[in-house]
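This part of the workshop introduces the protein records we will be handling. Getting from the letters to the C-alpha cells is the skill we practise here. The record below serves as our worked example for the rest of this section.

…
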Amino acid sequence: MRATIIHGPGDIRVEERDYPTVQLPTDAVVKVAAACVCGSDLWPYRGVREVRRPTAIGHEFIGTVESVGEDVTGLAVGDFVIAPFVVSCGECPQCLNGVTVACDHLAGWGSKDDTGHAIDGGQGQAVRVPLADSTLVKVPGVTEPEDALRASLLTLSDVMATGHHAALAAKAGPGRTVVVVGDGAVGLCGVLAAKRLGAERVIAMSRHADRQAIAREFGATDIVEERGEAGVAKVRELLGGVLADSVLECVGTKESMEQALHSVRPGGALGFVGVPTGGAEIPPRYLFDTNISVSGGMAPARTYIPELLADVLDGKINPGRVFDSVMPLEEAPEAYRAMDERRAIKVLLEP
C-alpha cells in the first residue's frame, strides 16, 4: 500500500509499505477513506521536533473496517469508523475517568503498541488498529459518507474534539465572553465549540480573511487582528473595558500563551490545547495575583466523539468547513508545504 513517511525536516515522501493485517485478537484493519495533515505534524516537518528515522506519519483518519481479530465484538467488517488520534483500552483507571490520552496502554499512530507490534500512520491507504473495540467509534447508519459529511467526521478524530476540549477547559458557556487565540483548524473549531456551548460573545483573533470568514460562519461575533498589547487593548475595548471570561489558546507558542493569558479577566479561565513548543509560558505569580484558572492539555477525543458525532449527524455543526483543500495521498508533500506556508488551513488527503 501507499503511505506517507517523514524522513526529516521538510522531507515528506509517499512510499510503498506492506498492507496491514490482523496481528492480535483485539486488532482491526481499517481501509482509510480520508486522512489529513494536522498542525502538530508541522513541528517535525519544520524541525522543531526531532525525526530520528523515517517514520510513518498522520494521526487523523476515518474509514471502513476490512477485517477484525477474533476478540473484537463491537465492530464488524463493513462498519464505517472514526479513529481518535491515539489508541486506548477503555478499561484502565484513566480511560474510565475519561482521560483516554493517558491510557495505561496508550499508543500513537506510526509508533508501536505495547506488545511491540508496529502501528501504521494515519496518512496511508490502510491502518492496523490495536484495541479496536475501545479505540474506534462506529458511525451508525453510514457506509459511504458524501463529501461534506466525510470532512466533518474526519475533524472528530482530532481538531473538533480538541477545540471542544479547549472550550470546556475555559468554561465557555451561556453568558460568557470568549476569546480564541489561533486561527488554524483547532482555533476555528474552538470558535464553533464555544458557540455550541452557548457562549454569548466569541472573539476570534485572526489576520487572514479566509479564516476570519470561517470563524464568523462558526459563530464568531468579532474579529481582532491586533497582537500583543494592542490585541489585549482591542479585546478590552470590544468588551466595554473588561477582558474575556474565557480564553482558548490553540497554537502552542510562548507568544500565543502570553496573548491568551493577558486577554483573560481576573478570575477568568484559560483553556490551552496548543502543543507546547516554547519556553516557560505560564507564570505562577501572574496566576496567583489574578486568580485566573488554567486547564487543558491533550484532548481525550475518544471520550468526546460520541457527543460531537450526534451533532454532526443531526446537522447541528459542520466542522468539516475547516478543510479548504483536498488532495490525493500522492500529493502529501505538497499538502505539507501548503499548510507550512499557510496557503491552506487544513488539507484532506484522499488515499
